[in-house]
Amino acid sequence: MRKRSMAVFLIIVLSIYSLVNIYLFIRGWQGLEALPYLRPYYTALFVVLFLSYIIGRILMKVSPGVFSGIMMWTGSYYMVFMLYFFLLIVLFDLFRLLNLGFHFFPAFILASWAQFKALTFLISLILIGALVLAGSINAARPVVRKLSLHIDKPAGKLTELKIVMISDLHLGAIIGKTRLEGIIGQVNELKPDIILLAGDVIDEDVEPVMKHNLGPMLREFRSKYGVYAVPGNHEYIGGAERCIAYLQENGVKVLRDSTTRIDSSFLLVGRDDRDRPRFAGGTRAELSVLLEEEDHSQPIILMDHQPFSFDKAVEAGVDLQFSGHTHAGQIWPLNYITAAIYEVDHGYLKKGNTHFYVSNGIGTWGPPVRIGNRPEIVEVHLTFSQQQ
Fold this sequence. Notes:
Elements: H1 2-31, H2 39-62, H3 66-102, H4 107-111, H5 113-139, E1 143-154, E2 160-166, H6 177-189, E3 194-197, H7 207-211, H8 215-218, E4 227-229, H9 233-238, H10 240-249, E5 252-254, E6 258-262, E7 266-270, H11 276-280, H12 287-291, E8 300-303, H13 310-316, E9 320-323, H14 335-341, E10 347-351, E11 354-358, E12 376-385
Parallel strand pairs: 1-12, 2-3, 3-4, 4-5, 7-8, 8-9, 9-11
Antiparallel strand pairs: 2-12, 6-7, 10-11
Helix pairs in contact: 1-2, 1-3, 2-3, 3-5
């Protein structure tokens, strides 16, 4: 089941990737009509860029090292160039089609069409390069989102609680030691009572995480009640058992369809990822089943990586849910897709008596670039009712 699902997933992704690149290659080749001596170099470079991410992913699984890292970084950045070149060329082609009917292109452009295409290609490359550079800087500068919420339940001896939540670290070949050190420092400066990692801690392949010895760094997180996590879809894509075992070996308590009561004051619930059946087989427990024998008189805080089925959390009596997964699209205009898919793809929502927060994540998947949103650390100051 897992192999079949993975095969279907890869076939779909690689098919789309290949078709987009064929279109880009043809249009780029045509764009160099005025500079034919560049076409052999263009072809060679295009083939390297097209294959780099695929080769990097394969090598990361069998022999992670410098070369595989270079290929991963190259391929990751190429994805952003690919996206924006695709959008620009589609837009350009639409204008060309409209011009066939309305003839609005100036005569001087039509008279030097080959030179115009080459100039457009060069200007687009410069503009996209500048945008990618800005997005890279932005992706490495997390912002702290502060939220104050009240839960109308007593929480044992607690009257308040400071939660720091991050999601979508994606530790691996791209997000490594330097970024992780900075994130840990920012989180610890907030002096949290508890740290929650809402899925996708590891970016599919655990090998580069182990090779660069990132696990022990997770022990440097500091909080009163420790560090808790749930699996995300990327842990399952890469092999959840190894990823989760590695996290637990390094001080992260992973909740998989399980609960734990913290300081006799509140219940922390962690869902297994909804993609478990697709990538690993089996099923995940229904939330109502997880909570049916639990004490609902104290606050119930839930982590569920993918932000679906909010109504079930409301019905089950959850007081606060944290999710991630969406990245809020990560790169404009993909945010319009995530906004259409999810009830909330980023930010706060209250339904009934349940508070929801969906983080756009602190790391990145694929390109280490964010355009249109900032990575975030979420600080929630919770207050509770007094004990009756």
